[in-house]
Write a structure and sequence with these properties.
127 residues; mainly beta; Lipocalin; eight-stranded antiparallel beta barrel; 1 helix; 8 strands
Length: 127
Amino acid sequence: MLRQFLLLLFVLGAGQIASAQYLKGNYKYSDHGDIYRYQFKGDSTLVIIHGKDTSTTTYSIDTTTAPMHIDIQFYDSEGNAAYKSLCIFEWVGRDNIRLRMSANLLDRPKGFLPKGNPETILLVKEK
């Protein structure tokens, strides 16, 4: 369950405290063939789709930090703020994003090591 939850927490960034327009686009993540789609809207909305399940979240990014920060706000079924996930991200190549969430979902990770950790995923931009 924690692994599935972590997979739902994704994002990216660039610039300074960048605008949501910079992230606008569709990305996907495959967990051993299980596909998650991430749709970054131009208004700081992130829609995460997994099979028939859809989660609408909001996000903010700060690209002035190293590593860059992304905060994802999740909501309950009534639209109330439920919790915020503090993440880090970096560009991999031109269009892909490496994202790491906290193992405890409370503290922002300091870096991407150790390599192969289960909290880090790769988002691939869909053309």
